[in-house]
Write a structure and sequence with these properties.
Number of domains: 3
Radius of gyration: 29 Å
Number of strands: 2
Helix content: 55-70%
Number of helices: 18
InterPro entries: Retrotrans_gag_dom (IPR005162)
Order of helices and strands: HHHHHHHHHEEHHHHHHHHH
Pfam families: Retrotrans_gag (PF03732)
Protein name: Retrotransposon gag domain-containing protein
Strand content: under 5%
Structural class: mainly alpha
Shape: elongated
Domain Retrotransposon gag: 293-376
Strand order of the largest sheet: 1-2
């Protein structure tokens, strides 16, 4: 987002949603917000949740959209770079602003107005490429859309083509890794929408909800791309050159699905956390592609609550509320207290198993309580040898337990000396 193209009111809003007070002059506000935007692009800061005044914000957005539409309809081949950047920044700002508005009830006039304004933003992105000959030519050369229910998917196609143009505009190279990554992801989202062309009336509300959320997801990718946050930035090598670190495997290919049928919520979440680290994914990636991680009745549940959440953390909390047994904590504590060390189970493995048990508890016990339970459940062989020793941590327990294992191994490997033949 080009802060030099934002008005004073828009700068005030961008600062306010980040919890900061507006300065007296436009220049001071621009200096204040630039480092914040840079930190957000680098993934070092997150935009906080901000409660807006629904009626006031929608009214302001409506006025800005009307003004942008007038500017876009006047675009021709003589349009300057300044005019194009001003329109681009204005559309980014108002699209983000509309999406942040959260009416309390989906049946209210405010919610209907929000949807109308969101649709209008999508139309304006498409209108940009229609009115600017350079953009129009670029789209005609590169745009392609999958077959399917194009009446319902037309607005998504417009968003896709508009964002593709923005990719080329920002990167300056349509063949760059950033451009290819974004285009592949957007094309995948769009193609999956064609699978929702069902005539089952009972599925209609779920389908429409998914379409709406997919549009918001597409717009989010567009905003991330135009603000330069298409990937994570990491510094490497002695030169300290920033490189884009992409997700190596899409979420749909992780092989992890939660169906909600006799499946452990915590086992699923642990697998997700492990894959998130291994595949270089973020919570934002999990939230945007959450539909790839659910199936069956759990997928139907997710489609129903997705619009009420704004982060992966909120989805996880709702998931626990819905799918965890009511007596989950009590049953887990029973498992913990009854889990003793096996006859041939090594101390390191046993402690790791117990750590995982304690990690699943909603409220973590103290280190001393964990240590007390683990010590009590040790195999008698270890208890006999550790009973008189002072142990203050699990790490110390594992260290001393391994010494005992080493001694036992040496004892087992002992062989008496061969008998010497006497002369």
């Amino acid at each position: 987002m080009d802060t030099n193209r934002l008005s004073k009111e828009e700068l005030t809003y961008e600062l306010r949603i980040r919890g900061l007070a507006a300065e007296s002059t436009v220049d001071e506000m621009r200096r204040k917000i630039r480092p914040l935007l840079r930190l957000e692009r680098e993934g070092k800061a997150m935009l906080p949740v901000y409660e807006t005044s629904t009626a006031e914000d929608l009214d302001i957005c409506k006025g800005k959209i009307n003004a942008l539409e007038a500017l876009i309809t006047e675009l021709d081949e003589t349009a300057s770079e300044h005019e194009l950047r001003k329109i681009d920044t204005g559309l980014q700002h108002v699209t983000n602003r509309v999406n942040r508005v959260r009416p309390e009830d989906s049946n209210t006039e405010a919610w209907q107005l929000k949807r109308q304004l969101a649709d209008k933003c999508a139309e304006l992105w498409a209108l940009c490429e229609e009115r600017d000959p350079k953009v129009k030519q670029e789209v005609e050369e590169t745009s392609s859309r999958p077959s399917g229910n194009m009446i319902e998917l037309d607005r998504f196609g417009k968003i896709l083509t508009a964002i593709r143009v923005q990719v080329a505009y920002i990167t300056g190279d349509r063949g760059s890794p950033v451009a290819r990554q974004l285009e592949d992801r957007l094309a995948d989202l769009l193609s999956r929408l064609t699978l929702l062309s069902t005539e089952d009336e009972e599925e209609e509300n779920v389908r429409l909800g998914y379409l709406e959320e997919s549009m918001e997801c597409l717009q989010e990718f567009g905003r991330r791309m135009t603000s330069g946050t298409a990937g994570k930035v990491e510094r490497i090598d002695p030169c300290n050159e920033p490189v884009i670190k992409k997700i190596q495997v899409p979420l749909k290919d992780w092989g992890i699905k939660f169906s909600g049928d006799d499946q452990s919520v915590h086992a699923f979440l642990e697998a997700i956390e492990e894959m998130k680290s291994a595949r270089n994914a973020s919570d934002a990636d999990l939230f945007n592609s959450a539909f790839d991680l659910f199936s069956g009745r759990a997928l139907i549940w997710l489609k129903a609550i997705r619009r009420e959440t704004s982060s992966w953390e909120e989805i996880v909390q709702e998931m626990r509320n819905e799918f965890e047994p009511l007596d989950y904590t009590e049953r887990l504590w029973e498992e913990i207290r009854s889990r003793t060390q096996g006859e041939d189970e090594k101390i390191g493995f046993y402690v790791s198993v117990m750590r995982n048990y304690f990690h699943r508890l909603p409220q973590k016990p103290t280190e001393n309580e964990v240590l007390r339970i683990v010590l009590r459940n040790l195999h008698p062989y270890y208890l006999e040898r550790l009973g008189l020793q002072k142990i203050s941590s699990l790490a110390e327990l594992v260290e001393k337990g391994r010494r005992i294992e080493d001694n036992r191994w040496r004892i087992q490997m002992y062989r008496p000396p061969p008998l010497k033949k006497t002369l």
